[in-house]
Design a protein that fits this description.
Length: 246
């Protein structure tokens, strides 16, 4: 992740569109490089246009299912904060996992979108956190958590204090962030199959959306939107043939 980020910035500095890999392709949340155009910006982004299991979605119709309790084994491992030009991301040290379908996925990073990307029964939230996990084969699990305005969130404290104003390399956090504080105490969740919500929009992502929201303070919510300067949510995608389990 770190090397990839460094490569990205090297790529941006030496920008030459004819030789770019997908990592170097500019995209944005509006205009000529906005979500409607993502699929045409690079051949590697084709799923953004052609995918039929894309995220985010409006979670509105549910299928009753016997969803197993999620097994989180998190430690305070958020060691770096990064402004990557699209979001604020906290990189996570190895050793924190979630077990889904009897398989272990390691927490790699968490980051945010404002307003929320997924919406629940038509309702958007001011902020959505994505906890991104992967197994050794690169299969991805995203745990999504919605924020409402209320008490300040301790998981955000250090990253928000040290939040870079501009895109750049990761900065070490003075105190490791604890992703456990991004989980509601009630761990009931919705589940569906989806994609990354940013290019390359790869599918096959297991989405687990917490039913209960958590809070961030008015100042915490404001700081993220001020630093990002524009909305950071991909528009809703068609549900198509998918089921949202609850
Ligand atoms: Zn995300």
């Amino acid at each position: 992740m770190k090397n990839k980020t460094l490569l990205l910035f090297a790529g941006l500095t030496l920008l030459s569109h004819t030789t770019c890999s997908a990592d170097d392709v500019h995209w944005s949340y509006a205009g000529e490089e906005g979500p409607e155009k993502w699929g045409r910006l690079s051949s590697e982004f084709i799923m953004c246009s052609l995918g039929r299991n894309q995220s985010p979605i409006d979670l509105a119709e549910f299928i009753e299912a016997d969803l197993k309790p999620l097994e989180f084994a998190y430690q305070p491992g958020g060691t770096e904060v990064l402004h990557n030009g699209h979001t604020i991301q906290v990189n996570y040290a190895p050793g924190s996992t979630i077990t889904v379908d009897g398989r272990e996925f390691e927490l790699k990073q968490f980051h945010f979108h404002a307003p929320s990307e997924n919406i629940i029964k038509g309702k958007p939230y001011p902020l959505e956190g994505h906890l991104v996990h992967a197994d050794s084969n690169g299969n991805v699990v995203v745990v999504a958590v919605m924020f409402t305005e209320g008490a300040s969130n301790t998981a955000l404290k250090e990253a928000w204090q040290q939040m870079p104003n501009r895109a750049g390399a990761p900065q070490p956090l003075s105190t490791p962030a604890d992703a456990g504080n991004l989980l509601p105490s009630d761990r009931d969740y919705y589940r569906f199959n989806g994609s990354l919500t940013t290019p390359p929009c790869s599918e096959g992502v297991r989405w687990l959306v917490m039913k209960k929201s958590i809070t961030a303070s008015k100042d915490q919510l404001a700081k993220f939107t001020q630093v990002m300067q524009h909305p950071t949510n991909r528009p809703l995608q068609a549900v198509n043939a998918r089921a949202v389990l609850q």
